[in-house]
Design a protein that fits this description.
Elements: E1 7-13, H1 17-28, E2 33-40, H2 61-64, H3 81-99, H4 106-110, E3 113-115, H5 129-139, E4 146-150, H6 155-168, H7 174-184, E5 185-189, H8 196-204, E6 209-212, H9 222-225, H10 236-244, H11 247-252, H12 278-283, H13 306-309, E7 334-335, E8 341-342, H14 345-348, H15 351-365, E9 378-382, E10 388-389, E11 394-403, E12 409-415, E13 429-430, E14 460-469, E15 479-488, E16 495-504
Parallel strand pairs: 1-2, 1-4, 2-3, 4-5, 5-6, 10-16
Antiparallel strand pairs: 7-8, 9-11, 11-14, 12-15, 13-14, 15-16
This protein binds calcium ion (2 copies).
One calcium ion binds near residues 405 and 407.
Length: about 500
Amino acid sequence: MARDNKLRTVVMHDPELDDINTIIRYLLYSNQFDTEGLIYSSSRFHWKGDGKGTLFYGESEHSNYGIGPIANWRWDEGSRFFEDAVDIYATVYRNLSVHAEGYPHPDELRSRIYEGSVEFPGDISKDSPGSNHIKKLILDDKPGTLYLLTGAGQSTIGRALLSIEEEYKNSSQWKNVYEKISKKIIIQSFGDQDGIYASYIGLNWPNIEFREVATNIWGYFARKVVQPEDRHYLSAAWTRENISKVGPFGEHYIVWGDGKQLHKNDIADFFGFSRVTVEQLKELGYTPWYGGVEEPGSWISEGDTSMYMNLLDNGLDAHVDASYGGWGGRNGKDIDPNGVSSKDYSSSRWFGAAQRDFAARLQWTVTPEYKDANHHPVVEVVGLDSMTVKPGQTITLKAIVKDPDGNHLTGRWWQYEEAGTYPRKVELLSVEEPNTEVERTYPFDIPAPGSPEIDKLIKSEIEVTSQFTVPTDAVNGQTLHFILEAWDNGEKPLTSYKRVVLTVSR
Ligand SMILES: [Ca+2]
Ligand SMILES: [Ca+2]
């Protein structure tokens, strides 16, 4: 079921081609967030310059190419990728709102687009509209965590914090302001793309939680880490059928060989070419750092998508702690199916489910009637009286899973061993087979979401029950994580979860 309070987010991007894809996916989940800002931000890979031709003598990606002082790097003056994405969102907003509640009005999103610190990489010397907006959000009195999500550098955040420091540091309010901010914000970022975390934020605001969310599965090198059974989600055939062909967002999504190029003659962006060899790209003056050429129409990258995937309201509750893990990965290694402890597996293990979810949501954008698209199974855990357990105690994990579309359902409980602090596997016994007998399926139409009849019309339902005995060697305070995972068999199949975290108390 949906969260009571939406998580507050600020989303920052630079004009890398994969940020465009990341924004598309984010907007499909924008009903789950209170999006407080969409803010253009620089990184060492993209910076706009000051518009006056002032040369930058420092280091950025351009230095790797031996290019001397320049006035901007891979950022066109007229680039308005946030507005472009929201304009497309506006054309599908009505359809999306048929399938799930809470999508923000396009005008609301538009009003929250700001230009942040875009001029030079890692420059926190002056305010920008975006840094002023973040400063205001950081200082406001709204409850809850403010998630600052950056797919670029951190100079816009850094400037906001520095500006607060300059204003309050010598005042009597400083201690309170400092403590409030340290508790209130969490920064999630793919790396430190302009060095501002290392040079300013981490040093001066060490108590602000920083979650490094770099993954390979969401990036250019996804093919190196994808699970064999999920490989087709990167293919041209799947991508064309489930993404590119599906409405205006699908058309906007950037894939290999589509002829698009974000910045004219960008030597690092050769992905739009089709049927060329690496040698030919070199002859054309490009730097084909990817090391190969993929099939036209296939996956390129969504590098920064991991910055919000753990905040999704999919039942995994991955936002609660960086060690929990979810579609954006985990701050630790998971044991892969070959028995290898792998940082990549903690994110790649979810990739198939996340891609199917993306496909289903894209389908919503082109489906005006609720009954013509798939919707998520709804999971409820029942009968757990306490979240603390004693060694030797037998615990029953029981979930009721319903599907609003009457789809056939399958579910299972599993222990997310790596996420818990109890260091071993427990034996989970299925109390009854995930159960064809209990299932009821009545096919009929369903009213729009929010309608009071909707609960009565739930059309299929299963119970999934497992039992285990709390290990006798478990010690006080150790945790055991269990995940209920449930799938429907809709045309674009969907997965829902529920996480149960049990704490041992002797
Ligand atoms: Ca980026
Ligand atoms: Ca369904």
